[in-house]
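User: Hi! I'm working on a homework problem where we have to compare a predicted structure to a textbook description. Could you give me the structure for the chain below?
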Amino acid sequence: MSGLTYAGAGVDIAAGEALVERIKPFARATERPGTVAGLGGFGALFDLRAAGYRDPILVAATDGVGTKLRVAAETGLLDGLGQDLVAMCVNDLVCQGAEPLLFLDYFATGRLDVEEAARIIRGIAAACAASGCALVGGETAEMPGLYRAGEFDLAGFAVGAIERGGDLPRDVAEGDILLGLCSDGVHSNGFSLVRRVAEATGLRWSDPCPWDDGRSLGEALLVPTRLYVRPALAAIRAGGVHAVAHITGGGLTENIPRVLPPGLGGRIELGAWSLPEPFRWLREAGCIAEAEMLRTFNCGIGMVLVVEPGREDALTALLSGQGERVVRLGTVVPGQGIAYRGVLA
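Assistant: Happy to help. Predicted C-alpha cells:
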C-alpha cells in the first residue's frame, strides 16, 4: 500500500499557493493609508494613526451572500459575487457612521478551482477599492466531503473606524425626513424566495428575462449589491444625517426601526417611488402580498438616511451629485415600527 497524502484526500495545497500568488496584485491595488503589510502573514496589521485617526473607535461587521450563491454557481456568473460580499459588510459599517478601513474574505469549497476563485476575489478587491478599504487578507478553505462538486461559500469581515463621539444613530427626532437611496435590484437578500418563484414559473436561469429581453433571468437577478459607502459618508460629513439604515433582509419594515429610538417610528409614502421591474415580476409571478414584499425585499430602496428637517434638499443635491437616485420616502413620527400609506405601484 502506498502512503496516503493530503492531495490524495482531496486537498491541493499547490492550488492554494497558486491562488495566493494570483490574487496578490488584486490586494496591492486596494492599499490605502494605514495599510502595513501585504498578504502572506498569519495576521494583518493596520495603522490607525497613519489613516488619520486621533481617538478612534473600531466598528466591525460580517456577512455573506446567502443563497444568491446557488444561482451564481448554477449559471457560472460569478463576477458580481465579490461586490455583493463587500457591499453587505461595508454598507453596514456606514450605518454606524464608520469609514471602512480593511476587509478579509473567507472562501470555502470542496475542490479549489483557481480560476473560479480568482474571478470572485478579483471582484472583492475591486469593490474594496471602490469603497476605500484595503483587502488585507483572508482564508481559502478546501474541504472535500463537506461541499459537493461545484459548491462553495463566501463570508466577509470588514473593520472601520469613527472618531469618538461620531457614531450613528444620534439625535433622531420626530419630524426627521427619511431619504431613500435607490437599489440596483434585488441585491443579496430574499433569494430563497426568488428561487422558489423561479421554480414555480418553470423558468430556467438561462431563459430570457421577462422584463429585460437583452439579458437572461439569471443575469438580471445577479446584478450586484450597490456600494453606498462614498456617497453616504459624504452626506454624513456634510452634517444633518442622524441615522442610516441598510435595507437588507427584513426590508424597509424591519431595518428602519433598528435606527430609531424607543417611541418613534416611520411613516412611508409608498407612492413616492415606482416598484422596479424585478420586484414587479416577483410579486406577480409569486402572488406575494405587499406586506411580505416590504419585509423581504428592498423593493427598490437600498439605503435610508434619517436627516434633519431643512437639510433634505441640500443632502439630496449632494447625493445626486454622487450618482445616487434619491427618494423622499416619509418622516419620523411618534409610535413604533413602520406605517405605510398608499400602495406599491
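For your comparison, note the following. The CA atoms of residues 6 and 12 lie 7 Å apart. The mean pLDDT is 95. Good luck with the assignment!
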